[in-house]
Amino acid sequence: MVNYHHVYDQLTEITSVDNVMVDEHLKNHTYTRLGGKADFFVTPETYEQVQEIVKLSNKVDLPFTLLGNGSNLIVKDGGIRGIVLNLKRLTDISTDGTILVAQSGARIIDASRHALSKSLAGLEFACGIPGSVGGALFMNAGAYGGEIKDVLESTIVVDREGNLLNLSADDLDLEYRSSNIPDNGYIVLEATFSMKNGDYDEIKAIMDNLTFKRESKQPLEYPSCGSVFKRPPGYFAGKLIQDSGLQGKQLGGAQVSLKHAGFIVNRDAATADEYIGLIHFVQDTVKDKFGVRLEREVKIIGEDLVEEKNA
């Protein structure tokens, strides 16, 4: 049986007391504002600390979960057992000529803005993606005709055993909204992007236009996980949902956005169970009406909430 007090002592020895939280509400760390508690919520400051935490989880046989900035994620109401690792302290971004290097905890938006400041083209499409750099690699994030695989050169990851690996973009099997990162259990620490020299004003004009499109069409006024579904071949998910008469459909505090049917928003203190239930309802309704099964883009992790019964 795992001695949680001993694990806490070891975690704080690896990093610090300030970087280890016990029974932390994960709704504080997700864009949907959903999620139960994590046994341990750990925010390391160095690559070596990440390696040591992975090795510790293996040594004490404690479950281990990587949580990015929670933008494309739903955490269930029962939370997550074991160690939840968050890389929000790894946020450095730098350039050397046309090469841009960003740590995984940095926002991909900030990487695109840094590129702009150096008049480097290639990451304009990412100026409205709310995820972290690590999360962007995890799902080969994309928008407005661009995606991570177009510009990624290489990455540094930690594997399940705590080893540090240098991988090329080709090693990640990057496809539409997918990679082999989750299957291999990689933790992305750093990404290297190959950019092109460009004109500052032209790059900024593109980013301003994309930002306007995003802000005018997406329901940014409510918590959400972003676009819920992948684009089905030959269709648009939002159009299918809208044509199914589901815009505005509500389950508890979760609602299909009135602004963009491809989004489900946390309109009024929704639970993860309500949010996930509405996703399933949308999938079933669209399948019944159009014969198209919408595939989730958003990831769902964690445990269901177990209600305590009075003896």
CATH topology name of the largest domain, in short, is Uridine Diphospho-n-acetylenolpyruvylglucosamine Reductase, domain 3
Main β-sheet, spatial strand arrangement: 6-7-13-11-12
Shape: globular
Number of helices: 8
CATH class category name of the largest domain: Alpha Beta
CATH architecture of the largest domain: 2-Layer Sandwich
Number of strands: 19
Short summary:
With 311 residues, this protein is of the alpha+beta class.
Describe this structure in words.
This protein is of the alpha+beta class and 311 residues long. It has 3 domains: 4-86, Uridine Diphospho-n-acetylenolpyruvylglucosamine Reductase, domain 2, CATH 3.30.43.10; 93-202, 2-Layer Sandwich (Uridine Diphospho-n-acetylenolpyruvylglucosamine Reductase, domain 3), CATH 3.30.465; 219-301, UDP-N-acetylenolpyruvoylglucosamine reductase, C-terminal domain (Uridine Diphospho-n-acetylenolpyruvylglucosamine Reductase, domain 1), CATH 3.90.78. The chain has 8 helices and 19 strands. The chain has helices at 4-14, 47-59, 108-117, 133-138, 181-184, 200-217, 237-243, 272-290, and strands spanning 20-25, 37-42, 64-67, 73-75, 80-86, 93-96, 99-103, 120-121, 142-143, 146-147, 152-158, 164-168, 187-194, 196-197, 224-227, 250-251, 254-256, 263-266, 299-301. α1 runs antiparallel to α2. Belongs to the MurB family.
